[in-house]
Amino acid sequence: MKRSCATIALVTLVMPFVEVAAAQTVPLPRPRPFSNSETAPAHTAAPVPKATPSPSVCRLRLTPERAIAPSVDDIDGPGGCGGADIVRLEAVVMSDNSRVEINPPAVLQCSMAEAIANWVRDDLAELAAFNLGSRVRSVRNYASYHCRPRNNIIGAMMSEHGKGNAIDVRSITLVNGQTIDPTDVHVAREFREGWKKSVCARFSTVLGPGSDGYHENHIHVDLMVRRNGYRAMCQWDVRMPAEPKPESAVAAVTTDATAGVPLPTPRPKVGPKVDPARGRK
Ligand SMILES: [Zn+2]
User: Which residue of 36, 91, 106, 150 pairs with 99 in a disulfide if CB–CB is 3.0 to 4.6 A?
Assistant: First the structure.
């Protein structure tokens, strides 16, 4: 009995150590991966990514092989200006991987940027090479997205520029260093005629010299959608330099002046009156 009591006392003393030792050798369950319905502990929680809309068909087509045109945030401007699917067109990438810079980069709807990229790749480059003997280095962007009424006339309809659906081109620069102004009467006429024909085929509005008095030094193009099947607007007088007067005309002027008959001063050509609803875009 005495031995039993001693044994019990010994077991009582030893057991806690046995339990500790046993606990140390029993493997712990491996942590389970968290399912979607479970919440990870705070220390491993990853930020939930913001839902992003799927890219537009245009966005998928306008790849880095065709244009350097990163997407930018939607624009929510005053008075309905702005829109979605906006890009910043920085350069058009040609089939040989060379680039035509858009200077400064143009903020445009993707569809408009794609149309410009296609025009530069498929029309402008060939026109310049054929008529001017050089490749194009850059296109001078005079205006792209700009929240304003047409022709900056207060109360007029919103310009297509306000939707990022228009661009004004001031000039292009060639690889040989020349700057070519499409409104310059001294630039090869074939080149300017080709430019006009190509943009009028691609865009729904083209306004240049002779259109409304607001486009004497640049070319406006946009993709305005017209209702009721309205035709595209293609208004650009590809002018020639003023021709010198023939000698007979000079002689006639001299004779009239000698006779004291004043001739009327030729009036500068004035464009048609601007209808604010249909004027410059
Ligand atoms: Zn414009």
Answer: 91
Contacts of residue 232, Cβ cutoff 8 Å, sequence gap at least 6: 200, 203, 204, 205, 206, 226
Relative to beta strand 136-143, strand 99-109 is parallel
Cα of 203 vs centre of ligand 1, distance in Å, is 13
Quick one: which of 162, 49, 159, 144 has its CA closest to 87? 144
For the stretch 68-103, pLDDT in tens is 999 999 999 998 899 999 999 999 999 999 999 999
Q: What residues pack around ion ligand 1 (CB closer than 5 A)?
A: 168, 220, 281
Using the CB atoms, write b or e for 35-60: b if 16+ within 10 Å. eeeeeeeeeeeeeeeeeeeeeeebbe
What proportion of the chain, given as a percentage, has pLDDT over 90?
58
* 118, 124 contact by CB (below 8 A): no
- Give the distance between the most distant pair of CA atoms in the chain: 160
- Separation of alpha carbons 62 and 110, rounded Å: 8
Rounded to the nearest angstrom, the distance between the alpha carbon of 136 and the centre of ligand 1 is 22
Q: Is 245 exposed, middle or buried (0-12, 13-18, 19+ CB in 10 A)?
A: exposed
- Average pLDDT score, the chain: 81
Phi, psi of 5 (to 5 degrees): -60, -40
